[in-house]
Structure formats: structure tokens, C-alpha cells
Amino acid sequence: MKRTPRLNDGTVFVVPAVLLLVLVFVGPLVWFFMRTLISVGTPAEIAAHAWGVISSKAVVTALTTTNWISLLVTLLVLAIGYPVAYFLATRQGWRFTLVLFCIVVPYFTSVIVRTYSWMVLLGRNGLVNQLLLHLGVTDEPLSLLYTKTGVLVGMVYVLLPYMVLTLFAAMKAIDPTLMRAARGLGAGSFYAFTRVYLPLSIHGVISGSLIVYILSIGFFITPALMGGPADVMIAMLIERAVEINFDWASAAVMSLLLLVATLVLYSIYYRLTDVRRMMGA
Amino acid sequence: MHGSVKNHALSIYIGVACVVLMMPIVIVLILAVGDQTYMRFPPEAFSLRWFATFFGDPRWQRALGSSVLIAAIACVIATVFGFFAAYAFVRGDMRGKKLLLAFMLLPIIIPHVITAIAMYFMSGPLRLVGNVFWIGLCHATIALPIVLLILLSTLQGVDVNLERAALSLGSSRFGVFTKVVVPLAFPGILSAGLFSFLASFDELIISLFLAGVRSETLPVRIWNSLHLQVEPVIAAVSAFLIAVTGLVLLLDALVRYMRTARLASPNGGH
């Protein structure tokens, strides 16, 4: 009769959510890849078609653009976000709350709204050009919108919070007395930073950069609205293949390529970090 | 002296960063109350005419209705399923827990364009394009990871001994859930519900493919407008979306505040 109440049988509660994902998320993906690729023909024909798509000029250019923009965005976001995260990790009270507010409000604002705002700001008569003219940096309005600069500004703005929150989570775990100890032992502030703080925060740097790069290579909304004809990223090419050319087979090949790249990077991310802490949760 | 100069430099940098971070949000709010008929900043005169246009036009009303309905469906499904899944992760004794969690977070990792096209490919033959319930279900997969991340940390804070106690005092498994786990995790469940609603409400890419003409959501209509010709009413609609975000963040802050107040009160809030 006497038995300890067992609570370790909660596993079954995960089933509804797994079913939802299998039926509405994984199912459509598998069905899409299977059907579109099988419709191409025999495995040899599929391989030939895939090679044709991947080696086409449009896709090679888009892949180069995608990687280049993603790399630049990741480096920019890291450089801009690191001091912000450091500030958050070392301050309390109203300063902390204010800066966190300025990170969190944009973070939870719709991407389309944020992109729209930057389109207004970067336009020919936009606030940024007005400011540059006023300061005498330039004599005539610069073309910022529909250029690579526009895409970079928009994407950096959208992705910055992911980096800051990831870095902040890593930095919060750093014992502040270590920096004081290094300074007390005679290290200059630069030396103490590069030899003590930076190595201790490197974990956050790597996982933040990975997550930003992963999200960058699949980015669609911002480059589609803010980029010029030369700034076509792979996700845009996939959308066009479906919406404009009804070329499902090519869309599937490009999607598979992007999916595999994403999954490889995600598996590295999975190895390096605790996924429960994703996005600084 | 040296250190204080550095601290000043950091403070100035942070100040500038905060201004730049908030500027796009503030600009939209100002544009929304401008009286202009084309994209121009700053506006020369102010009025609420674009809000009147937004709330008065039946097409915008329909888009608002679709957005709310889809987000409500996604929110309920994601929160309920996500709550049970998070409970299984915290209390369950399964193998490969970490890998399963990594799998369940995939919807926010895999590029939305791929997910959207795959869902669209399936929706066509099943005649589900434009079906509000189906779009809500699809959005629920995107919202599920957010619910999981929030509720995992909430449920880790629920003492397993309270559940054991209830069970040994004769409570049923169901009773443990409704009388112990849910009340203790309630603030987290509310937060998860709020943020999953927002995730669906702001989602563009899946809606873009699945909405058809029937069920266009607010983000889809903004997208169409930005692609063709930017209507001035977009600023008012965007300001409305920002207001929804603000409301969600405010309610979440309130929920957190109430939880700390309850924990801090000497009699445990009874």
C-alpha cells in the first residue's frame, strides 16, 4: 500500500506539442521536398537539376551576397552590441532598466514596422539625409535606401537585441571581483579587459554570433524591402521562384540548401550552448 | 581619472545607442499623427485623420479582425500545448531531453520563408489557403518555442515537493495540475500567452503565403502597401502594432510585479 508518489511520469505530456509540430511543421516540409523533387524525375535527373540550380549565376550570386551580408551584419551587431551588453551587466537601478527598455521595445516590435520606419528614415528626404546635409557631411542627399547600406542598417537594427540579450546572459555570470583583482594586481584596464573579461565572455560572443548569423542567412523581409537589385539574398530568390515563376522544383533545391546550412550551424550552436537559454531567455 | 573618462565614453555611447534604438519607434508614432499625404518627416501639421481612416475602412477592419482571430487561435493552442510540453521537460524522466527540446525550438530557427512555402504547398490541394483556423494552427508552431522557453524557466521554479504533498494527501493527478501546478505557474502562463499572441499578431511571412485575399492580416497589408505605393495610413497601422507591443510588455511587467509582490508579502499573498 505504502508507496512514494511518483511524479517522474510526466513525459507523456510532451506528446500533443510534438504531434502539432510533426503534423503542421515537419509534415509540410517533408511533403514539400519529397513531392517537388520526385516530380523532377529519377535520382540522376534530380541531381542534375539540383546542380543546374545551384551552379546558376543567380543562385551563386545570391549565395555570395547572403554570406557577405550575414558576415557583415554579425560583425557589426557584435561590435555595437558588446558595450551595450557590458553596460547592462555592470549597472543596476534606473540605468539598467532604461537601457533594457530600449532593447526590449524594438525587439518585440513587428519586423515589418521596424523596416518601414527605416525606409522613412533612410529615404532621399529622410531624417538621416536631412541630418547629414545639415552637418555638412554631404552636399546632396545620399542614396541609402535600396542599397546594401540600407539592408545592413535594417538588419543590424532588427538583430541587435538577439546579440545583446545573449551576451548579457553570459556576462551576468562573470564575477565582477575578478576584474577588480586583475586591476589590483597591477593590470591596466585594457590588459584586464582583454585577458580576463573578454575570455570569460567569449562563450556569449560565439553563441550570439552564431544565432545572428543563422537568422541572417534566412532573412527575407528587410532585404526584400530595403535592398536594391544587386542585393538579392537567397530567401528572396526562393520566394520569387514560387510567387513569380511557379518553379517549385528550383525553390525546393534552394530551400534544401538553406535548410541544411541552417541545421549545420544550429547543431554547432546546440553543442556549444544550453538551448534553454536561447535568445537570452 | 583615466577610468572615469572611460566610463564617460561608455555612458555617452550607451546614450547614443538608446536614442538610435528608440528613434524608429518614435518616428512611426509621430508620423501616425501627422497630417501629410506622403512619407515625410517631420510632419507639418498634426491630426488623427489616419487613425480615422484605419478604424473606419471596412478592409482595414477585416484585416484587424483576421489578425486578432488568428493570433487568439495561435495563442491558445501554443500556450496549452506548450505548457504541457514544458511540464514534461521539467518533470519527465525521458532520454534525449535536450535533443527533443532543440527539435521543438526549430520553428524559430528554420528560415520562415522555407516553412511558409512548405505550408503553402500543402495548403493549396487541401483548400486551406485563407482558412483562419489553419493559419492560426501554423502560427502556433512558431509561437510554441516562445511558450516553451518562458514556461521552462517558470516551472523550474515550482517546488516538486508541493506536487508530491498534494498527491500523497489524496489529490488526483488532475487535481495536482489544476490546484497546484497551474496556480503556481500562472504568472508564467500569462506571460507565455501574451508573447505567443504577439508572435502571431506580428508574423508576416507565413500569413503572406497562407492568407489569400480572404484573410489578409495587418502585417500582410502593410507589406503590400510598402511594395507598391506607401499609403500614409501605414504609419497609423504601424503605430497601432507598436501600441499592441507596448500593451503586451506592460501587462507582462504587471504580471511580474504581482508575482514578486505575492512572494514578498509575509503571508504568501493569501
Structural summary, described in words:
Chain A has 281 residues and is mostly helical. In chain A, 74% of the residues lie in helices and 0% in strands. Chain A has a single domain, classed as MetI-like (MetI-like fold, Orthogonal Bundle), CATH 1.10.3720.10. The model of chain A has no long low-confidence stretch (mean pLDDT 92). With 270 residues, chain B is mostly helical. In chain B, 76% of the residues lie in helices and 0% in strands. Chain B starts with a helix and ends in a 6-residue tail after the last helix. The chains are: A mainly alpha (281), B mainly alpha (270).
**CATH class designation of chain B:** Mainly Alpha
Number of helices of chain A: 12
CATH superfamily of chain A: MetI-like
Mean pLDDT of chain B: 90
Shape type of chain A: globular
Order of helices and strands of chain B: HHHHHHHHHHH
* CATH architecture group name of chain A: Orthogonal Bundle
**Percent in helix of chain B:** over 70%
Number of domains of chain A: 1
Q: What kind of sheet is the major sheet of chain B? A: none
List keywords for this structure.
A: mainly alpha; 12 helices; B: about 270 residues; mainly alpha; MetI-like fold
In summary, what is this structure?
The complex is a heterodimer of chains A (about 280) and B (about 270). With about 280 residues, chain A is mainly alpha-helical.
What's the topology here?
The complex is a heterodimer of chains A (281) and B (270).
Chain A (H helix, E strand, L loop, with lengths): L14 H24 L4 H12 L2 H34 L2 H15 L3 H12 L4 H8 L13 H25 L3 H9 L4 H29 L3 H6 L7 H10 L4 H25 L9
Helix pairs in contact in A: 1-12, 2-12, 3-4, 3-7, 3-9, 4-7, 5-7, 7-9, 8-9, 9-12, 11-12
Chain B lengths: L1 H31 L16 H8 L1 H34 L5 H8 L7 H12 L8 H25 L3 H9 L4 H29 L3 H6 L7 H10 L5 H32 L6
